[in-house]
Every structure is written in C-alpha cells, then in structure tokens.
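Troubleshooting: if your tokenizer reports a length mismatch, compare your output against this known-good record of 236 residues.
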Amino acid sequence: MATWTVILRTVLFFLSLAMMLASLALIAVGFWMRYDNSFDTDLKNLIYQYNDPKTLADAKFNIRVWLIVVFWSIIGLSLGAVVTAIFGMISSVWSKRRGLMITYLFLIIVLVVLEIGSGIAMLIRRNSLHDATNALVNAIYTSNSVNDIKIIQNTYSCCGAQNNVFNVMYCGSMSSLPYCDVTVFNSVDNTMMISGIILLVVLILQIIATIVPVPVLISRRKSITYSYEPAEVSRF
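Known-good structure output:
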C-alpha cells in the first residue's frame, strides 16, 4: 500500500473519530437540556403548562412544536453522524473491503445534504420563531398569567412586551428594563446560533471527510484492475 494512501486512511480515521465524539457530545447535551429537571425547571414548567386560556395555550403549543422539531432534528442528524463515523473508522482500517468505504462515502454524502437542507430550513423559518416568541409573551401578559409573568421577568430581567397595553402595569413609566418578547427571542436565537456553530464545525469536518476517501477508492480500483490484467503469453 502506497504511503500517501496510508496517510489518507489515517486522516479519515481521526476525522471520523472527531465527528463521532462531537456528535455524541451534542446528543448528550441535548438530552440533558431536554430531560434533566435541574435545567431551567421554571421555564419548562411554563412551556409545558396545559391548563391555560386558549390564546396562551396555543402560543405555548407553537413553542413546544418548535422545540420538539429542533431537538429531534439535532438528535437524528447526530445519530446519523455517529453511524457514519463508525463506518468511516472501520473502512479506514479495513483496507481490503472496498465496499465499506463506498458505503461510508454514500452515507456521509446523504448526511451532508440533509444537514445543509436542515440548516437552510431553520434559517428560512427563523421569522416564524420570532413571531411565536412574540405571541407567547403577549399572550402571557394579555391573559394576566401571574406565575408565567414572574418566571419570564425573573429569568430574563425584563418586563412587558413591545406595544403591549399592559406595560405600564408591569413595568412602570420609568422602567429601563428591556421588553420580555425581545429578551426571550434573543435567548432562544442565541442558543440556536451556538448549536448552529457546533453543527457547522461538524459539517466542515464531514465535507473534508467526504473528499478524503475519493483518491483512496480510485487508487484501490486501479490496483484491482491491474491485478486482473492477463499476462502476455510468449510465442516461443
């Protein structure tokens, strides 16, 4: 086996290992944030409260749908990245099985396309998230949900909502605190941006890992072709 082929296989192994570790870490953080009762307990209780007036209940439902879609999209893509990374490590070590590397290349191309598509969809739907958080905060103040108001104002150090008629009641005329609909959206948006940056790093690793196997497969194909060429038979 040529030296450069060994180097490329080594690079592929460590790229796949890094991709697997990053994906497992993202899965662990996602499940911790979603299911650990010690993480943002008050906010979880606010979102998952089901005995509210219809307007507030609908606003909370829309936020829950957003969170569920984003959560399972990240978990699904991360699990796909873990499986693909395992194929990458196996194919980089098991050099005699060309089919493994072909399978890995197919899986990672599909994964990269799905991740790019998901990222574009999230960017397109960002305005709807803004509308959903605005609707939630306005519904909380309009329905005078005292417990929910206390939670968001204490959590985000804010009061009221933009253009809300109840601002004077909750903020006072001299308040310098930011509006809660602005701070809630900024908090959610920043969290998504951080997740997006992590996924972008993983995506860059995956794109590099998509390129690395190509020369290895080409080299392997040529060696197989040459090995099966019939030897010239001498006439003498």
